[in-house]
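Please, structure for the following, as tokens.
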Amino acid sequence: MTAVQPSVGGTLPLGRPTVVGDRRPVGRPTVRAALFDLDGLLVDSEPVWSVAEAEIMSWLGGPWNAGVKAACLGRPIEVSCGELVRIAGSDVDPAVVQRRLLARMVDLFRADLPWRPGARELLDALAARGVPLALVSSSYRVLVDAALETIGGHWFATTVAGDEVRHGKPHPEPYLTAARRLGVEPATCVVFEDSPTGLAAGEAAGCYCVAVPDVVQVAAAPGRMVLRSLIELDVCRLFVSNDSEQVTTRSSASAKKGLASHDL
């Protein structure tokens, strides 16, 4: 087994990935940038979110179970808080819930935020190749900054937070914003996501997506690589252009059309 030697930290194994969907992008341009989700993809924060969300549901007098968690996963916090209030049958203002949840999450993020397997090594490997990286999160800026205080932010040329866009995931705006800031076409970007909501955003933006499901399983689909862990990723595959084969990924033109359909 060969390996990419990253600039910092350990090595990234380059074995044959265990892939549920496509094994590599087909007919797409060479990767010019990589765009990363944060929660559940780079850092193991979903258990942290679950702690805070369960506390909120207890305060609201509602249930806490896998269905409630799925209703919140990958969504902007204002949407998640609205769901928590609705499921609890509470009359508490969702804005009050949001402030309470944000304050609790900042404290938890600053206390401890473990990496997902292979995440830091992947960032190092891509940075060593000179690939521009962006962090694209549904979390608000205060949470993104708290996370970066804990894990470090030197890998990222730009970061996009959930309260810095008009439309959050699953709308394509967050990923289109990141691509624009990096000066690259969305079709030349690879998006790394863990949730169906985030994948919908990346694919609507016209990016090739690598899914690493965490809490909710992700179905196989054309033009999508599905891995059990980032450790399984063969970095070299991301840099293979296969223009002679049938095109299965979206073009940048379709991404622009998708923008119009989403009323951006």
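The chain has two domains: 3-44+114-261, 46-111. The two ends are 45 Å apart (CA to CA).
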